[in-house]
């Protein structure tokens, strides 16, 4: 499947993110269960998974016929595999737990097809399973689950259009229904078959969810970081969300890296380097989620920081370590590998080692073009980097 089609599948899947959290505002669950859910959710985001599972086990014991505890128990496995996407260690447990959620929901929907709790949690389970299939590139399965989850979200929107939790899903759809075709024009003909979006309204809905939603506020903040960092290209706004997420959940490697990426763009250099050295140290300490991919990224940014401080020899040490990691992790030259070797060439130019710099640029030109890497390498080959 083409990248643009894969992105559309992910859009259909991701709009269901808010569905399970919305349902909690209508579900028949006393404050004891709700308190346990809230505690467990916090544990999930701070990757304290055993503690989260214990909380959700209590919920399932108190409310064995309610899907909330089962769904959030499945989210533990989702975050495990989402943080470590190159391992399939958690796939089977995730799929089994999602199937349990669907079975519990279907029992509620057998007697009442409009049961709000059953609909919301079923939509959420299908949405996350669609995202799983998209990650594993099983696109037909992802599209089927994503479309069903999308239809459920539209039904939920009719039931409670002003609910702040459901605004996560509607905000995601409104923003990305416009932003994705803008970035990937091949999607424009496909999006004709879906309702129109509104980027400005989508951001407002996401911001409302981040401020006022009871269960969806963290996911809304995550999406707002992605919106501002990847699409709006506004690192200052992105840093507002990345910084707050990392402050609240300091053990989550996803939030740690988000904060670090914003620091790279905003500076100062010392702060940027401190963040990525912390990331690398956590890799050496074998902290959960700080894997080889994360270490490679840290090596690159520490090398970049040393380069910006004119410490060229130390920069080269980190960048050559990054290059080694790239070769171990990927069969073909990755974007990181290409950027690393361009940077090495630039450092050699700054050191006056023109022959070594040219060899680096020729190496990049021999690989596939990646985001204009050929034009950049050719430019520096013709005129030394300064």
TrEMBL record:
Instruction: Report each TPR repeat as a residue range.
Output: 33-66
Recorded superkingdom: Bacteria
The reply to whether Signal figures as a keyword in the UniProt entry is yes
Name of a matching Pfam family: TPR_6
Q: Which UniProt keywords apply?
A: Signal, TPR repeat
- SMART domains assigned: TPR
Give the signal peptide, or none: 1-24
Coiled-coil residue spans: none
SUPFAM superfamilies (UniProt xref): TPR-like
What's this protein's name? Answer: Tetratricopeptide repeat protein
Species source reads Candidatus Kapaibacterium thiocyanatum
> Lineage in the entry?
Bacteria, Pseudomonadati, Candidatus Kapaibacteriota, Candidatus Kapaibacteriia, Candidatus Kapaibacteriales
């Amino acid at each position: 499947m083409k990248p643009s089609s894969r992105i559309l599948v992910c859009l259909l899947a991701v709009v269901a993110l808010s569905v399970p959290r919305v349902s909690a505002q209508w579900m028949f669950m006393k404050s004891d269960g709700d308190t346990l859910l809230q505690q467990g959710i916090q544990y999930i985001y701070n990757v304290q998974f055993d503690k989260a599972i214990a909380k959700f086990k209590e919920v399932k014991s108190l409310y064995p016929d309610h899907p909330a505890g089962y769904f959030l128990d499945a989210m533990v496995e989702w975050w495990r595999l989402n943080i470590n996407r190159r391992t399939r260690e958690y796939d089977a447990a995730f799929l089994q737990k999602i199937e349990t959620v669907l079975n519990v929901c279907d029992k509620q929907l057998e007697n009442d097809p409009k049961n709000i709790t059953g609909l919301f949690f079923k939509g959420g389970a299908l949405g996350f399973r669609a995202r799983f299939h998209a990650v594993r590139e099983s696109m037909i399965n992802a599209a089927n689950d994503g479309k069903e989850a999308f239809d459920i979200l539209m039904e939920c929107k009719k039931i409670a259009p002003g609910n702040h939790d459901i605004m996560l899903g509607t905000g995601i759809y409104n923003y990305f229904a416009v932003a994705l075709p803008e970035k990937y024009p091949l999607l424009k003909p496909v999006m004709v078959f879906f309702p129109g979006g509104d980027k400005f309204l989508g951001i407002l809905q996401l911001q409302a969810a981040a401020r006022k939603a009871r269960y969806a506020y963290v996911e809304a903040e995550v999406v707002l970081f992605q919106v501002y960092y990847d699409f709006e290209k506004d690192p200052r706004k992105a840093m507002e969300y990345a910084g707050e997420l990392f402050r609240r959940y300091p053990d989550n490697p996803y939030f740690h890296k988000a904060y670090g990426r914003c620091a790279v763009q905003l500076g100062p250099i010392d702060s940027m380097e401190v963040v990525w050295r912390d990331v690398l140290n956590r890799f050496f300490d074998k902290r959960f989620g700080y894997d080889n991919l994360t270490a490679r990224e840290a090596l690159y940014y520490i090398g970049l920081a040393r380069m910006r401080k004119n410490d060229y020899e130390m920069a080269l040490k980190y960048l050559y370590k990054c290059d080694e990691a790239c070769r171990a992790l990927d069969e073909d030259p990755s974007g990181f590998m290409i950027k690393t070797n361009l940077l090495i060439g630039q450092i050699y130019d700054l050191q006056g080692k023109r022959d070594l710099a040219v060899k680096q640029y020729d190496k990049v030109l021999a690989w596939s073009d990646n985001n204009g890497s050929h034009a950049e390498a050719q430019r520096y080959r013709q005129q030394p980097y300064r």
